[in-house]
Amino acid sequence: MIKDMTADEISLYIIKTLKENKKAEFEAILEELQPYDVAKIYEDLPEKHKGRFLLFLKTDVLADLMEELDKEEQLELLNILGIEKTSKVLDLMDNDDLALLLNELSPEKKDSLLSGMKKEESSAVQGIMNYPPETAGRIMTNRFVWIRDYFTVREAVDKFKIFAEFAESINYLYVIDEARKLVGVVSYRDLLLAEPEEKIREIMYERVISVSAATDQEVVAQTAERYDFLAIPVVDENNVLVGIVTVDDIIDIFIQEANEDIEKLSASGKSIDFETKTLVAAARRLPWLILLLFIGVISGRIISSFEETLQRVVALAFFMPMIAGMTGNTGTQSLAVVVRGLITQDIDRRVITRLIARELGVGITIGVTCAIIIAIIAYIWQGNLILGAVVGSSLFFTLIIGTLAGTIIPLILYRLKIDPAVASGPLITTLNDIFSLLTYFGIATMFLKHLM
Amino acid sequence: MIKDMTADEISLYIIKTLKENKKAEFEAILEELQPYDVAKIYEDLPEKHKGRFLLFLKTDVLADLMEELDKEEQLELLNILGIEKTSKVLDLMDNDDLALLLNELSPEKKDSLLSGMKKEESSAVQGIMNYPPETAGRIMTNRFVWIRDYFTVREAVDKFKIFAEFAESINYLYVIDEARKLVGVVSYRDLLLAEPEEKIREIMYERVISVSAATDQEVVAQTAERYDFLAIPVVDENNVLVGIVTVDDIIDIFIQEANEDIEKLSASGKSIDFETKTLVAAARRLPWLILLLFIGVISGRIISSFEETLQRVVALAFFMPMIAGMTGNTGTQSLAVVVRGLITQDIDRRVITRLIARELGVGITIGVTCAIIIAIIAYIWQGNLILGAVVGSSLFFTLIIGTLAGTIIPLILYRLKIDPAVASGPLITTLNDIFSLLTYFGIATMFLKHLM
């Protein structure tokens, strides 16, 4: 019916059914929409229609809608819904999405929402909230299908059919023993290809790839990506199956971690997006900027300690920003390669040695090339051969130092189990600023009498 | 059997079965391993065992293994396999992975490999290779399950069971009409919940979310992420279903696109990783560095045009790197927010206006804060109130300009359909360098007689 309509036409059509109070027609439209579309329509709906819109929605669609909204919109929606319907919606929401919401509420509000929910669901979500942020435990769901190893394929399929509606992933069935320990996994595909009377224990994989509930979410995502899994089981310290992480969460983790890397590399504060308020965004960015300000003052002190040299050959100042900028840039280039490489690569001594040797080679190559170019430019511009040699040789050394610093510092941080991205961006910029100024003015001072 | 063994123990065990020529035992181990594990073991295997290892592997495991290896390893493996087995392995490989491999070979080698394959498979992979890189057509697979709308649920399930083994995604069945046009989709979950005699056309979604084969892969990934799809159908210009893109490729796209953003923001050359050769990496990085070098020379010219001012007040040089660095940094911070925001956000005039207003607010806030701090430092350090005022007011203006440049330039590029990340990093650094030097020395020259 709405197949060939644009999003705007669908919105108008929905408003029409709301105005005319045609619930059946409304439901027929909603049947054909995805949760993402429902959320877009809800967000753009005039305020006066939102109440009836929510009233018309079925509880499971409301739960899907909740999962698509951001926190403010979720709270607004719950307020409109009222207590009784809220409980039903929360029961149907994915645990991990619900945990995210509850986590940001006041303890009273949280308890009141939890108390309205089914016992089973509220304890599941409370369980999730006990795990530290950014771990597997925090993003897992309890909506998975488990079977016992003595089941036949037919029994497994029967159980699967019953739970298919609620399960978040229908691709794998996890096999547990009497202590709920994870002992195997069967893909639904394998079930289809097996004989109905075969036992699960005969067709299951015993070497299950799983993650612990305390595992960092980045590692969870890497593991799922390596194995191309659509879901990965989560176990506690006794290998008891406690949940699964599904591939939609894996994608969100990759996006989130990439954003974090970029934020850290650009020394932005954490989690600034288009919705962040002005003062919040400024407050998150200021610490780095103030740090850089003081670092800038240190650079200034270094320059001032060469004041005499600078005063005699003011032309040295012309090349100062270029040398600092180039050194900083080559450092950032190396840093980007290392930080992203650490995400997908297995790191051992051989890899590290080869990488450092490679970057040294890169540093020398770009150092020689850029040094020759700038030496020629400086000579032609200022008509001073020694100045050209000083600027060129300084750039040669600082480019090598910058490249190596951008490679080695993140590797050291990684070894010390500090996220290389967090400290490296500003750290490398600073160190490279200081190195490059010291090198430049050091060489210049040595050749001062030839320069004048 | 190998359930509780470490990776190294499994490797040793496999070498033992190879040495003792125990094929059955070898196959029993392999049954329990994932393709990723098989690839790791193969890569670390001593050369002398690789031949028998490959000889022992079944064709489908060989195809899985191929998909995990990088290009050099793939070619090595094909050489060991010989022509006949190679053809069988290529037939079983995923089209998109095979297209990636073939694409890098010489035309002769490519044709010889294609000629050994099944007609159906070789024409499918050739079809994929006709699409431009980084489009949906290039990453899709033809291993999906399609049904007709007049099928009953039972017929659909029967067809599904036959194709489950080969299908890359078992989550959705796509419904086509007699012209192979995509007219609906049924999730496997829906099939399980439906009555066997119901018609597919009665239970299918008609409003199928699909992408065109020419769609940019980044848009494909965004669409799949929004809708939490495990696969997304690809159609040609006539809405004929030509393939599907599966979620494992979606994840790879997100990783690849994030890496590209980081490379571009850090002005690295494209696609440098741990394996890239020294000279190749240097050659990819040099263009940006040489560009920055010439930009640095422009900055130098600006400084030299204020030579007189600088000569009279050498202390101005002390604050030069700090002002340029801070301006560059705030620009990069804004840039990172915008570039990542554009990936997940829908952009309209309202969003853009609000974002620019927010960043203006941020620029003023951080400008005031940092200006006051540096003015006090400059005054205390140099004992010159006017110098403090000049440095402080310069920083105030350059921080606002830097923040706005980092926001507005990527938005303009986005509007012009140029990838904001590619040009923005170096472009913003340049413009901010030039703006900040002009502002600083301009203000300083105005107050020159008070400074001395």
Automatic annotation (TrEMBL), chains A, B:
- Identify its membrane topology class: Multi-pass membrane protein
Q: Which domain of life is it from?
A: Bacteria
Q: Which UniProt keywords apply?
A: CBS domain, Cell membrane, Magnesium, Membrane, Metal-binding, Transmembrane, Transmembrane helix, Transport
For this protein, the record's Gene3D superfamilies field holds: CBS-domain (3.10.580.10), MgtE N-terminal domain-like (1.25.60.10), SLC41 divalent cation transporters, integral membrane domain (1.10.357.20)
Pfam families to which the protein is assigned, alphabetical: CBS (PF00571), MgtE (PF01769), MgtE_N (PF03448)
Q: Which residues cross the membrane?
A: 286-303, 315-339, 360-381, 387-414, 426-448
The CBS domain extends over: 140-202, 204-262
Where, per UniProt, does this protein localize?
A: Cell membrane; Membrane
Keyword Ligase present in the record's keywords: the answer is: no
What GO molecular function annotations does the UniProt record carry, in alphabetical order? magnesium ion transmembrane transporter activity; metal ion binding
Q: Which InterPro entries match?
A: CBS_dom (IPR000644), CBS_dom_sf (IPR046342), Mg_transptr_MgtE_intracell_dom (IPR006668), MgtE_N_sf (IPR038076), MgtE_transporter (IPR006669), SLC41_membr_dom (IPR006667), SLC41_membr_dom_sf (IPR036739)
Per the record, GO CC terms?
plasma membrane
| Annotated function | Acts as a magnesium transporter.
Which NCBIfam families does the UniProt record give? Answer: mgtE
Q: Which family does it belong to?
A: Belongs to the SLC41A transporter family.
Q: How does it assemble?
A: Homodimer.
Q: What is this protein called?
A: Magnesium transporter MgtE
Source organism of this protein record: Neobacillus bataviensis
The lineage, from the top, is:
Bacteria, Bacillati, Bacillota, Bacilli, Bacillales
